[in-house]
Amino acid sequence: MKPVEITLPDPPADPALRPPARRPGSVRRTSTILMTWPAGFGTQLRLDGRARDLLTPQHGSATVLAQDEFSIGVGQDRTLEDVRVAPGRPGISRLVGARGGGQLRSVIRDLLPDDVQAGTPLSLLLDDVAGCTLIAGFAWSRWRDWKDIVAPVGSQDIPQPKRRSMVGVCAGFRPGSRALGDDGSSHPEMRHNLAGVPPLADPEDPMGWHQLDRHPPVAMRRARRIDVWQEGDSIAVDAMFRDSCWQPDGAEVAVHEYSIAAAIDRPNGRVLSVEATPRVLPFAECPAAAPNAAWLAGASARDLRSEVLLRLRSTDCCTHLNDALRALAEVPVLADVL
User: Fold this and answer.
1) Rounded to whole angstroms, how far apart are CA atoms 315 and 106?
2) What CA–CA distances, in Å, run from 9 to 6, 96, 216, 284?
């Protein structure tokens, strides 16, 4: 008997066209991390991040509540080689030598407990370092046939990623996924679904995003927007998450993008509801994780950085959805301004 073939819809390719208009009586947190290689392929990765909290009051002009920036150099083994932040923080240089893996977040908690507790823009940026050091190299896949132009250092070919079993890592790599090869690694001939995206900022709202830096031809960017406002006794949230890069023709394309709508009970800080909408994902199996965001109902919002990892695991999760949801942990902090 032949196995029954399940027909899956095409992976989503519906990026958000523009950010929503800012609501009177709301706070908007935006963040970006630009990933580049100033000296060319095979050299140090630079992470340049900026995050800002903007209050849009019921009446009067918008006010910047906080803004943080960093510049971090990362070696090929994901080790942090230099770290600068603005405004400065005592002891920040002790992050040098840490590695951009899962343990980096515990190092950040130990070195910057005040920032983590206060949910500052810097704490959000630093939390994203682990993920950015992992995904940054995807940018080079769009330039494989252009290496002589964009990779002046050395003459080596742009290598294929090291092959390892990915079975069960996430919904996209669940057993039987078409994105998996026979050895359980990412299928070498399965191309990532990508979608062209419009600019992050709305040209009609210059204050809607923080300053966005120019980028070199080969670059990747992680961007977030979190809008927070009050509706009765609850905190309403409209958020987006996007990983994108640029192609040789100059077009920006997203490989991961989610929209998130959530409600949090104001008196006790617990999650009332969460709905995740996949907008751009690499494989047809990836969107299966999105409905599971609803499992966060009842969790303490401030504990989401740990609760997301406890409740959404293995084939029930999407790594990038988890990243999008974990950043909602600071929503109660933003709502306190209101």
Assistant:
1) 25
2) 10, 45, 35, 6
CA of residue 94 relative to chain centroid, distance:
24
DSSP state of 87: S
Please state at what angle helix 304-311 crosses helix 319-326, rounded to 10 degrees: 150
Tokens of 241: 């998450």
> Encoding tokens for residue 282?
């690499």
End-to-end C-alpha distance for the chain, whole angstroms: 62
Cα separation, 200 vs 121, in Å, equals 18
Q: Please list the ranges in the chain whose pLDDT falls under 70.
A: 1-8, 145-163, 184-185, 187-190
Is the separation of the CB atoms in 141 and 150 below 8 Å?
A: no
Instruction: Check residue 159 and report its DSSP letter.
Output: P
pTM for the full predicted model: 0.92
Structure tokens at 136: 């940054």
Contact by Cβ (8 Å): 261, 241: no
What whole-number distance in Å separates Cα of residue 32 and Cα of residue 223?
4
- Nearest to 230, CA basis, from 19, 22, 20, 25: 25
For 237-290, write each residue's pLDDT tens digit.
999 999 999 999 999 999 999 999 999 999 999 999 999 999 999 999 999 999
Closest Cα partner for 333 from 297, 294, 295, 304? 304
Largest CA distance in the chain: 70
CA angle, corner 30, sides to 267 and 327, nearest 5?
50
